[in-house]
Amino acid sequence: MQPYFLPYIGYFQLINAVEKYVLYDDVQFIKGGWINRNNILVNSNKYMFNLILNGASSNKLINEISISSNQTKLLKTIENSYRRAPYFEAAFSLVKRIFEYKELNLAKFVGNSVCEVCHYLNLGTQIIYSSDLPKDDSLKSQEKVINICKLLGANTYLNAIGGQKLYNKEAFKHQNIDLLFLKSNTTHYSQFHDKFVSELSILDLIMFNSIEEINLMLDQYEVIL
């Protein structure tokens, strides 16, 4: 999966469900995607925040782009929005570590945020950058994914449910790899008011729930054959 910045719980359900998780950092950057942005709760409404990027282009790879310097402003927005949340102290300490990370490379900055959240939630999955693997970069799309699976000795490849449109089960089966998909179930929890606002960053989840509660939510998914 591409490295997404503070993504929704389904991303971490996928990480928790596997032994090795590959951050696909040497593929083309998608403008308007979730690599550098996500949604949080501001005044009880969904609010999108963005990491400002330098020279972002769909002609560049994710790991060829750097971030700018709006982290301090974003931190203040998060602090003001969640200071009354029940788990604010621990969650905001995590968020500060993420936003104050000194690496400006987009892939490394976002990848670090994924690793920090995993550490916070006690997830032991091995995180691997695809750019560190000796794969065949002449391959495209599905064939490159299969190549990565073979390099890692995988006999099962688990992808998010959206991957059903991208991958062919028979192609994986031909290489003795089972292709499965994870479908996240809707997770509701108490926010500031009775109305639940969905499709928010994991950041929102950790502000309103204990680590133990979140770990239970991480198991709320289905595996689609």
Short synopsis of the structure:
This protein has 225 residues and is α/β, with parallel strands linked by helices. The chain has helices spanning 9-16, 71-82, 88-99, 106-120, 141-151, 169-173, 202-208, 211-217; strands at 20-23, 37-42, 45-50, 53-54, 66-67, 126-129, 156-160, 178-184, 221-224.
Overview of the structural elements:
By secondary structure, the chain is an alpha/beta fold. It has helices spanning 9-16, 71-82, 88-99, 106-120, 141-151, 169-173, 202-208, 211-217; strands at residues 20-23, 37-42, 45-50, 53-54, 66-67, 126-129, 156-160, 178-184, 221-224. It has one domain (9-224). 34% of the residues lie in helices and 18% in strands. It has a 3-stranded mixed β-sheet with strand order 7-8-9. Strands 1-6 form a two-stranded parallel sheet. α3 packs antiparallel against α4. The model has no long low-confidence stretch (mean pLDDT 96).
Radius of gyration, in angstroms, nearest whole number: 18 Å
Mean pLDDT score, rounded? 96
Q: Based on DSSP secondary structure assignment, what is the total number of beta strands?
A: 9
The major sheet is characterized as:
3 strands, mixed
Estimate what percentage of residues fall within beta strands: 15-25%
Topology pattern, helix = H, strand = E:
HEEEEEHHHEHEHEHHE
Structural class: alpha/beta
Task: Give the distance, in angstroms, between the N- and C-terminal Cα atoms.
Answer: 19 Å
Specify the overall morphology.
Answer: globular
Identify the strand order in the major beta sheet. 7-8-9
Question: Could you estimate the helical fraction of the residues in percent?
Answer: 25-40%
